[in-house]
Specification:
Elements lengths: L12 H16 L4 H8 L3 H8 L7 H10 L4 H39 L20 E3 L2 E3 L12 E2 L5 H9 L14 H28 L51 E8 L2 E8 L4 E7 L6 E6 L2 E6 L7 E3 L3 E2 L7 E5 L5 E3 L2
Antiparallel strand pairs: 1-2, 2-3, 4-5, 5-6, 6-9, 6-10, 7-8, 7-11, 11-12
Length: about 350
């Protein structure tokens, strides 16, 4: 039985090549996933995701693997940078797909208020469309009124009467007065159609305004913090968006995995400091890898700051709770090491 499962077919070729290279290094070093976790300081479950292509390994983990397997880290990190770019492109395609789905849903919702389909009674034997009688008036199919309501015209004369008048050279059939109350009914139907269209447009604007990738933040203040999106607009497994994510764990809320990318990275001593960002969740958080007990990381967006610390011996990774932000460029991460050394992303 082969040791490794086949990598997902949908993986970008560059990411697939990188994951394959990681597997080769692990095999060459004769390491089990458990041993790899012990020697690099990264969790076993994380390495399983890295090696099976479900999550892109962070740069700190790649450097740790190079050290464990006595591999030149320069070449390995070069491959990681190429894979990181490919991963980001895949995330962009995912976001575009989600936007297309939301647009399709909005169009479907608008379509529900269109004109009703023609009934068999409204179709003549010759395949044409016959007028429909609504009360004392005749509704003409194909002539759309507001919100799909067909306007009505008064009833026409009977066939013999019409033929007699036309044969006499008259200008056309006489038009009797509309039945009492017809004007009020038409006005009521018109107003109902206008209200229906307004409701649908308001719903579409509401969904679009809550999109984590939108340009305009509502109530976000100077930091551009988005408000929480509706649950129906989120992908499966994602439990928060925008302001609803602030102060919450990225993994627990479903904002990590293939929904996250590294927006910024910098080295502080032997520690790698990153700003992690999920466009789908509209939130960012700070992370340090290759760290030690007493090291801490914090992320700041505007006046909001979240912090994470390494308190247990043997732990080498820590990350902060999330902070809502529309643009990852507005998030800044800083690390403070136990040695007293500090550093921040730009």
């Amino acid at each position: 039985m082969p040791r490794w499962k086949a990598l997902p077919d949908e993986l970008d070729p560059q990411v697939k090549e990188f994951a394959t290279q990681l597997r080769r290094l692990v095999d060459r070093g004769g390491l089990s996933v458990a041993a790899l976790s012990d020697r690099t300081g990264y969790a076993r479950t994380s390495w399983e995701r890295y090696l099976n292509g479900r999550l892109l390994a962070p740069k700190g983990a790649v450097v740790a693997l190079a050290e464990v397997t006595e591999t030149d880290p320069v070449h390995l990190t070069t491959m990681w940078e190429l894979a990181e770019r490919a991963w980001s492109r895949s995330e962009m395609r995912h976001d575009m797909t989600m936007e297309a789905i939301r647009i399709s849903q909005a169009r479907a919702a608008l379509g529900e208020f269109g004109a009703p389909p023609a009934t068999p009674a409204a179709t003549s034997a010759a395949g044409g469309t016959a007028p429909r009688r609504a009360g004392g008036a005749v509704a003409m199919p194909g002539i759309a009124g507001p919100a799909g309501v067909s306007p009505t015209i008064p009833p026409q004369p009977t066939a013999p009467d019409a033929n007699r008048r036309e044969g006499a050279g008259s200008r056309g059939p006489a038009t009797p007065a509309a039945p009492p109350g017809g004007g009020r009914r038409r006005l009521t139907m018109f107003l109902a159609g206008v209200v229906g269209v307004a409701v649908v447009i308001a719903a579409v604007l509401f969904l679009a305004g809550n999109d984590g990738g939108g340009r305009k933040a509502r109530g976000g203040g100077a930091s551009g913090t988005p408000s929480a999106a509706t649950g129906s607009a989120l992908p499966a497994g994602v439990k928060c968006a925008g302001a609803g994510c602030t102060g919450k764990d990225a993994v627990a809320m479903g904002c990590s995995g293939d929904l996250v990318t590294t927006a910024k990275t910098v080295t502080v001593g032997a520690t790698t400091l990153e700003v992690r960002y999920s466009r789908t969740c509209g939130a960012a958080w700070g992370r340090i890898t290759g760290a030690a007990r007493g090291d801490s990381v914090r992320v700041t967006v505007g006046t909001t700051t979240e912090r994470g610390d390494i308190t247990a011996v043997g732990d080498t990774i820590a990350y902060t709770p999330m902070v809502a932000v529309r643009d990852a460029a507005a998030a800044k991460a800083c690390a403070t090491l136990a040695s007293g050394r500090t550093g921040c992303t730009t």
